[in-house]
């Protein structure tokens, strides 16, 4: 049959079955609400996301004024954290416990500049991946961000 032996036919069938299984797992994960996250450490119990020092200061101010909800809202807007995580971290900051800050990288360009450099080099997909990794945006949001820059 078309010059294909039984061995090639079996290999082709196995490859097709593996592809169907992988696609099925992906579909089931998406239906269950799963989505890729570049911020895996944020989702690991015991690991806190880095919160810039100026945001921590503002959260301390809001908490001292009794505006805990505004402090949580600010943290969520700045980091994209879920409500429960933001509440826990806000309470930690207000109590004076240690919360990591992003590392200072001398000479590091801001996100927009790095995206522009990647786009200029023809690496649009890498620029989208960078935006998703640093902001937690969905693929569609990151794609829109990159296209607007």
Biggest β-sheet strands, sense, barrel:
none
What portion of the residues fall into strands of 2 or more residues?
Answer: under 5%
Number of helices, where a helix is a run of at least 4 consecutive DSSP H or I residues: 8
| Secondary-structure class | mainly alpha
In total, the number of strands is 0
Mean pLDDT: 81
Q: Rough shape? A: elongated
- Given as residue ranges, the uncertain stretches (5+ residues, pLDDT < 50) are none
Radius of gyration: 22 Å
Query: Termini distance?
Result: 54 Å
* H-E order: HHHHHHHH
Helix content percent band? 55-70%
Report on the architecture of this protein:
With 149 residues, the protein is an all-alpha fold. It contains eight helices and no strands. It has helices at 6-31, 40-43, 53-64, 68-79, 83-94, 111-120, 124-135, 139-148. The longest helix has 26 residues, at 6-31. The model has no long low-confidence stretch (mean pLDDT 81).
Fold blueprint:
Blueprint: H1 6-31, H2 40-43, H3 53-64, H4 68-79, H5 83-94, H6 111-120, H7 124-135, H8 139-148
Describe the structure concisely for a colleague.
The chain starts with 5 loop residues before the first helix and ends with a helix. The protein has eight helices and no strands. It is mostly helical and 149 residues long.
What are the main properties of this structure?
8 helices; 149 residues; mainly alpha; single chain
């Amino acid at each position: 049959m078309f010059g294909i032996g039984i061995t090639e036919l079996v290999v082709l069938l196995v490859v097709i079955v593996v592809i169907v299984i992988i696609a099925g797992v992906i579909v089931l994960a998406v239906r269950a609400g799963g989505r890729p996250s570049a911020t895996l450490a944020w989702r690991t119990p015991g690991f806190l996301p880095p919160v810039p020092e100026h945001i921590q200061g503002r959260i301390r101010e809001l908490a001292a004024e009794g505006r805990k909800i505004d402090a949580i809202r600010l943290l969520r807007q700045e980091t994209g954290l879920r409500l429960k995580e933001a509440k826990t971290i806000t309470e930690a900051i207000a109590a004076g416990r240690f919360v990591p800050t992003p590392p200072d990288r001398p000479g590091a360009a801001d996100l927009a500049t790095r995206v522009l450099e990647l786009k200029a080099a023809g690496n649009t997909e890498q620029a989208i991946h960078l935006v998703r990794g640093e902001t937690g945006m969905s693929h569609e949001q990151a794609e829109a961000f990159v296209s607007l820059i």
